Each structure stands twice: as structure tokens, then as C-alpha cells.
């Protein structure tokens, strides 16, 4: 896929699915802005991309903060001259039933996972319109489509991202802005490994294997496998897709 000349923002791009997406976009010729709150990981990744001849910019930002969200869009335009593509990927995950979830935890998860998508998109969409159109991919989760006990706030936040994707797709359609959503399943990242450690602190690898056994394809997904779906949705290959919700889960949601 050719992204030469395109300018892309990836939130939560310092590690995991976001990192794989940022690297793939840079490899395909895009200028990439990595917006993440982890300063050390973000600057290291950006230095690496620039060292091999790519074009990357670090914006240290919290997507749930309105001023930071505005800064992500502004610094991108100042440095690269516009915005064509946005991947709203930043997300956090904490377990909790409806009763064990504190109000503070609920607000934190909704703020990052759902309000963060709204805020960054709010500042980026006018820039896409100025360029005559663009594409956005929101990273939700299979937990936004189906529920499991003990993930109340996370499931609600991701269900919200799916609904917001459809609303954004309709709002952007007249201006040539396509908005789609990817729902990953069990992807081997630090987020999933943290879950495994919560489930089995002594033997987190055993917990990871138990996750893999629940996937029809029999294994965890890689961040690169999700990134390739995201790139497809961003590219002209998916030119007739907007408001779509695509699972990348090894068959997990099909089986529920
Ligand atoms: P990860 O924990 O490996 O990476 C998340 C990145 O987002 C980190 O670099 C982190 O610093 C950044 N981040 C977190 N909060 C932020 C904030 N407020 N502002 C800016 N940056 C922030 O996670 P992973 O697994 O790569 O997840 C990426 C997305 O995929 C998330 O939205 C997650 O909910 C979703 N997802 C992941 C699944 C998995 O199995 N790994 C499954 C389903 C969805």
C-alpha cells in the first residue's frame, strides 16, 4: 500500500498496535505523528523512524485532555502542513464489574477510550476537510460488540467508540472523510500481558496460553496483523467503506 505524501496521526502510537501501525505507515511512505503520553517510548520510536529516513514527529499528549488534543492537530499541521489520516488507537483497560468499578475508574476509562476519540477527531476533522477528505480508523474492541463479566467500563467505552464511528462516518461523508472501526480480539501486547498477570500473577504465560486457547484460530494475534487491517481501511483500497465495523480477532466474535 502506498502512503507516499500522506500525513498520518497515530494516537497511543508508542507501543503495541499503535506502534505497529505507525511503523507500517512510515514504511509505506507516510509522514507519521506519534501522539502518546509515554515520552521515553515515543521519542525513541520517532528517533528510530527518522534515523532510517522516514518522517516522524513526537507529540507527548494525553488524548483525554482537550488542550493536548488540540496540540496534536496543531503541531502536525505546523510541521507537515496538513493531515490526511488519523488512527484513534490510544486506550487503557482495567477490569471491574458494575459494582466493583469505582466512579473514578469509570471516568478514567471513558475519558481516555471514548472522550479521547471524540476530542482528537474534533480537532483533526476540519484539517481533513481542508485537504479535500481523508480517512479515520478508530480502534474499539470485540468487547464493544459482545460482553464478558467483569469488564463493565471497558466494554461501555468500546461500545461507545463503535457508535461514535458510525456518527462520525455520517458527519464526514459529504466532505469525503471515511471513518471506520477495527475491533481487535486477543492481541499480544503489554495491555494483554497486564491482563494475564492480573489473572495469574505467578504464571502469566499460562494465562496468555489460556487466552489463546479461546481463539478459534488457536493463537493470539500480533500487533502487525491488526496494523495491516488498519492500513487497508486507511487506503484507497477501502474507498467504498465508511461506518464499517471490522473484527480482527481470529474468529473470536464469530463464535460467541
Ligand atoms: P498498549 O498498552 O500496548 O499501548 C497503548 C498505548 O496507548 C501506549 O503507548 C500508551 O502509552 C498509550 N496511551 C494510553 N493512554 C493514553 C492517553 N490517555 N493518551 C495518549 N496515549 C495513551 O495497548 P494495545 O494493546 O496496543 O492497545 C491499543 C488499542 O487496542 C487500545 O485502544 C485497546 O483498547 C485496543 N485493543 C487491544 C486489544 C489487545 O488484545 N491488545 C484487544 C482489543 C482492543
* CATH fold node name of the largest domain: Rossmann fold
How many DSSP E strands?
7
Helical coverage, percent range: 40-55%
Spans of at least 5 consecutive residues whose pLDDT stays below 50 are none
The hetero molecules present are: 1,4-dihydronicotinamide adenine dinucleotide
Please count the helical segments: 9
Distance between the terminal alpha carbons, to the nearest Å?
Answer: 33 Å
Mean pLDDT: 97
By CATH, the architecture of the largest domain is named 3-Layer(aba) Sandwich
With strands numbered from the N-terminus, the spatial order across the biggest sheet is 3-2-1-4-5-6-7
The value of Rg in angstroms is: 17 Å
Largest sheet: 7 strands, parallel
Estimate nothing, just give the exact number of structural domains: 2
Structural category: alpha/beta
**Strand content of the residues, in percent?**
15-25%
Domain Ketoreductase: 6-195
Keywords: Oxidoreductase
Protein name: Short-chain dehydrogenase/reductase SDR
Family: Belongs to the short-chain dehydrogenases/reductases (SDR) family.
Could you explain how this protein is built, in words?
The protein is an alpha/beta fold and 256 residues long. It folds into two domains: 7-184 and 223-248, 3-Layer(aba) Sandwich (Rossmann fold), CATH 3.40.50.720; 186-220, no CATH class. The protein has nine helices and seven strands, in the order βαβαβαβαβαβαααβα. The chain has a seven-stranded parallel beta sheet, sandwiched between helices. β5, α5 and β6 (177-184) form a beta-alpha-beta unit. The chain starts with 6 loop residues before the first strand and ends with a helix. The model has no long low-confidence stretch (mean pLDDT 97). Bound molecules: 1,4-dihydronicotinamide adenine dinucleotide (NAI). 1,4-dihydronicotinamide adenine dinucleotide (NAI) binds next to α1, α4 and α6. 1,4-dihydronicotinamide adenine dinucleotide binds next to α1, α4 and α6. Belongs to the short-chain dehydrogenases/reductases (SDR) family. It comes from Chloroflexus aurantiacus (strain ATCC 29366 / DSM 635 / J-10-fl).
Amino acid at each position: 500500500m502506498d502512503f507516499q505524501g500522506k500525513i498520518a496521526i497515530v494516537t497511543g502510537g508508542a507501543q503495541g498496535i499503535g506502534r505497529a501501525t505507525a511503523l507500517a505507515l512510515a514504511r509505506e511512505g507516510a509522514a507519521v505523528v506519534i501522539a502518546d503520553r509515554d515520552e521515553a517510548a515515543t521519542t525513541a520510536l520517532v528517533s528510530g523512524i527518522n534515523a532510517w529516513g522516514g518522517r516522524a514527529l513526537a507529540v507527548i499528549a494525553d488524548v483525554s485532555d482537550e488542550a493536548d488534543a488540540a496540540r496534536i492537530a496543531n503541531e502536525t499541521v505546523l510541521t507537515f502542513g496538513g493531515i490526511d489520516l488519523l488512527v484513534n488507537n490510544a486506550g487503557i483497560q482495567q477490569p471491574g464489574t458494575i459494582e466493583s468499578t469505582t466512579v473514578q475508574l469509570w471516568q478514567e476509562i471513558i475519558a481516555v477510550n471514548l472522550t479521547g476519540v471524540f476530542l482528537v477527531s474534533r480537532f483533526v476533522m476540519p484539517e481533513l476537510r481542508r485537504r479535500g477528505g481523508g480517512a479515520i480508523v478508530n480502534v474499539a474492541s470485540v468487547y464493544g460488540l459482545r460482553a464478558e463479566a467483569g469488564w463493565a467500563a471497558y466494554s461501555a467505552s468500546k461500545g461507545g467508540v463503535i457508535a461514535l464511528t458510525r456518527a462520525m462516518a455520517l458527519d464526514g461523508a459529504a466532505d469525503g472523510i471515511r471513518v471506520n472501526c477495527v475491533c481487535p480480539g486477543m492481541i499480544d501486547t503489554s495491555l494483554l500481558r497486564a491482563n494475564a498477570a492480573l489473572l495469574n500473577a505467578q504464571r502469566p504465560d499460562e494465562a496468555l496460553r489460556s487466552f489463546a486457547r479461546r481463539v478459534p484460530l488457536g493463537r493470539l494475534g500480533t500487533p502487525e496483523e491488526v496494523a495491516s487491517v488498519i492500513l487497508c481501511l486507511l487506503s484507497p483500497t477501502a474507498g467504498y467503506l465508511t461506518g464499517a465495523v471490522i473484527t480482527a480477532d481470529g474468529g473470536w466474535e464469530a463464535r460467541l
